[in-house]
Structures are given as C-alpha cells and as structure tokens.
Amino acid sequence: GQRQRAWIAMTLAQDTDIILLDEPTTYLDMTHQIEILDLLFELNEKEKRTIVMVLHDLNLACRYAHHIVAIRDKKIYAQGKPEEIISCQLVKDVFQMDCQVTYDPLFGTPLCIPYGKGRCILRKEGVSS
Predict the structure, then answer these.
(1) How would you label 43-58 residue by residue, b for 16+ Cβ within 10 Å and e otherwise?
(2) What total of structural domains would you count in the chain?
(3) Full DSSP string of 76-120
C-alpha cells in the first residue's frame, strides 16, 4: 500500500497530461482503492488529464471509467462507455464467468454480480422456512 502511494505520488509529480497505470489498486484495501481512484477521477475531471489504466475490478472500472476496453485473446472484444458494453455475455466471453448485471444503487453504473458458491440467506420463492 505504502509503496503504491509513493509510486503514484511520483507519477503525479511529473505533471504529465497523460497518466498510464497498471493495476494501481492491486493489494490495496477497499478504503485505499477508493482514495486512489477518487484522486485519479479528480485529476481527470478538474485538470483534464487523461488517465489510462489496467483495472481488473470490473465494478470499479464501471464506476470510474468513461471508456472501457475489454480484451479477450489479446484482441479488443468490446469498447465504449461501461453502460453501453457491460453485459452478462461480455463477462461470460471475456472472464468465462456467469453473472447478473444490474445497476449500482449509488452511481447508476453497471454492477456485475458473479454467480458462484457461497452462503445464500435469501428466502427462495416457494420454500417456507
């Protein structure tokens, strides 16, 4: 965490118009991930800096990115605004994962909910407890 923050600080100190980042939130806890992405978002919005980053967290990418490029087999599978390209089919084709795509209740951006094993505390229809 500390090393990443120092690296990002050095990157920002260069005061370039374009910032390229490879997984800037890896190994950071949720709080620090949001801090870094909020900072980058502000640099883009207020200072009009272009931010290009690799981000494997699809939900954070949808929340912060204006444009996403989804890559499959070293080729562009889809690109565009998250709300225009993120779908269950894209997630299945690119990540080989079944999911449900809904909308983030706070931001309205696409929200990917992966299927998988885990605790299920929802009451299923037709099943009484």
Answers:
(1) ebeeeebebebebeeb
(2) 1
(3) EEEEE-HHHH--HHHHHHHH---EEEEE-TTT-SEEEEE--SS--
The predicted model scores a pTM of 0.82
**Which CATH number does the domain housing residue 73 bear?**
3.40.50.300
Gap between the Cα atoms of 118 and 92, Å rounded: 19
**Phi, psi at 31, each rounded to 5°:** -60, -45
Q: Which of the two residues, 13 and 23, has the higher pLDDT score?
A: 23
The token pair at 16 is 């370039």
Task: Compute CA distances 65 → 2, 44, 54, 58, 126, whole Å.
Answer: 24, 10, 11, 10, 41
* Pair of tokens at residue 41: 């978002």
Give the least confident one: 5-9, 35-39, 121-125.
Answer: 5-9
Q: Which domain holds residue 52?
A: 2-82
